[in-house]
C-alpha cells in the first residue's frame, strides 16, 4: 500500500481500537504488579510477545532474517523500547494509572519536535501545533497538581513516565527515519520485543526484584492481556500504521488514550478523578480535535 498523507477510515478505526487497549494497559500493569515485580513483569510480557509475533510471522511466511539494512536501527529501536517499558513499569509503582497514561502520552509532542528535523516530508500545520500545545497545557495542569504536594512521591513516577514518552517518540522516529520503514511490521516489532526480552529480565535481576511473588488468576489474566492483545496484536497494527500513514497525525490522534486510561483507572481501580484530571482531559481532548481537523480547502 503506498504511503498516505491523511488518516482514512481504516486508520481511524484501528487507532480507536488500539487507543482503547492502550488505555487499559496501565490498569493491567497495576493489577499484575500486585503479584509480579515491575521489570520482571515487563520482561515476561516481551518474552511471551516475542514467541507469539515470531510464530505469526512464520505462519504467514514473512521473511525475518534477510539482509535489508535494518540490523543496527533495529537494535537501537529495541534498546529504546526496553528503556521505555522499564520506565513505564517502574514508574507506575510511584504514580497512578490515571496520571501515568496522561504523562506517557506526551510522546506526540516529542515526535512532532523530532519530525521537524528527521521527517521533513511530514510538515505540520499551525492548527496541529496549536492542538498539541493545548493538549500539553492539560498535561502541565495535571503535573502541577503534584508540585503543590511535594511530600508525596508521585512526581517521581510522573517524571519516569515522561521519560518513557521521550523514548517512545525516539522509537517512532527511528522507525520512520531508517531502513525499518521499509520492512514488515512484524520484523520491526520483533527487533524491539526480542531485545527487550533480553534486557528487561537482566534489569530485574540487577534490581534484586523477587519476580513472581503473589500469583493469582487476576495477575496472570492481566499479564496475558498485555502480552497477547497489547504487545503482540496492537503493536503489529501500530507499526503497520506507522509505515503507511504520517507519524505526526497518528501520534496526535493517540491522545485519545489518556481519556480512556483515566476513566479505566477511576472505574476499575477506584483512583481519584480530581478536578485537575478532568481539566487535563478536556484540554487534551480539545487538542486532539484541533490537531486532526482537515486542512481548509
Description:
This protein is an all-alpha fold and about 300 residues long. The chain has one domain. Helix content is about 75%, strand content about 0%. It has twelve helices and no strands. It has helices at about 10-30, 40-60, 70-90, 95-105, 105-120, 125-145, 155-175, 185-205, 215-245, 245-255, 255-270, 275-290. Helix 11 packs antiparallel against helix 12 (about 275-290). The longest helix is centred in the last third of the chain and has 28 residues, at about 215-245. The chain is globular.
Blueprint (SSEs and pairs):
Layout: H1 9-32, H2 38-59, H3 71-91, H4 97-104, H5 107-118, H6 126-147, H7 154-177, H8 185-207, H9 217-244, H10 247-253, H11 256-269, H12 275-291
List keywords for this structure.
297 residues, 12 helices, mainly alpha, single chain, globular, 75% helix
Q: What Rg do the Cα atoms give?
A: 18 Å
Structural domains: how many = 1
Task: Report the total helices.
Answer: 12
Helix fraction, binned, reads over 70%
Summed up:
With 297 residues, the chain is an all-alpha fold. It has helices at 9-32, 38-59, 71-91, 97-104, 107-118, 126-147, 154-177, 185-207, 217-244, 247-253, 256-269, 275-291.
